């Protein structure tokens, strides 16, 4: 029986596909993380070539970073072992390039604020980028709000934080933003400030992957706050700090053991501050912070 040429070609193609798909999949899974983020020409080259399409070019860089980072963190949340460190420097470089192409791109500032502060630990770099954006997005209260949070929570510069919160309040018309300057300008309010901030980030995030990242961090800080309340109740009753988080569970001040969504264990430092062995990051994010700059 003769086999028609199209059928023979189809069978040959299927065999070739089966032979190649395995090695190709393994290559895509194991190739260096920098390669997955991809090579992008210098912004100095892109800028003149993009002509009147700079907004589209900038948006494409932001999408590239969001897809890369969101996919990586999605794997970590699903419990998969991620051995490579995220290319935070490359991400920062692309987002800085995006706002040079289009300084009005809100997504670039919004996403940079998310990873430069929590994951890269580059709070000053984040604020410099926000300052750049404020020169163009003069109506946008989010940028001074982000800067105020960074100064209050990470940098402990409460005078600067008050300045930016007031600016956010003037732009938004919300008295709440102005009241943050007085309400949170002491360290005792730091966890509540983080919860308020993360709730806003989650509410306004459009990317499902990034929403999961904010929601996970929000769960962690709500557990921290639960421990803090129990700790304060213990101190009020006994006149001293509890020995451990486990003690608070044992005597019923914590109705259930707190769970760190990052997989760590909560503990109390000598001064009563609540910490976690995870440092509120998945295993892929542990270790020395990347040196990120523009």
Calculate Rg over CA atoms. 24 Å
Strand order of the main beta sheet, please?
1-2
Low-confidence stretches are 31-35, 285-290
**Could you tell me the number of beta strands?**
2
Oligomeric state, counting identical vs distinct chains: single chain
**Average residue-wise pLDDT:** 80
Major sheet characteristics: 2 strands, antiparallel
The 3D shape can be described as globular
Q: What is the count of DSSP helices, taking H or I runs of 4+ residues?
A: 13
β content, as a range? under 5%
Element pattern in H and E: HHHHHHHHHHHHHEE
Classification by helices and strands:
mainly alpha
The span between the termini is 67 Å
* Domain count: 2
Helix content: 55-70%
Topology readout:
Blueprint lengths: L4 H26 L2 H5 L5 H8 L3 H24 L10 H14 L4 H13 L4 H12 L7 H13 L3 H15 L2 H9 L6 H15 L3 H31 L6 H6 L15 E3 L5 E3 L18
Antiparallel strand pairs: 1-2
Helix pairs in contact: 4-5, 4-12, 5-6, 6-7, 6-8, 7-8, 8-9, 8-11, 9-10, 11-12
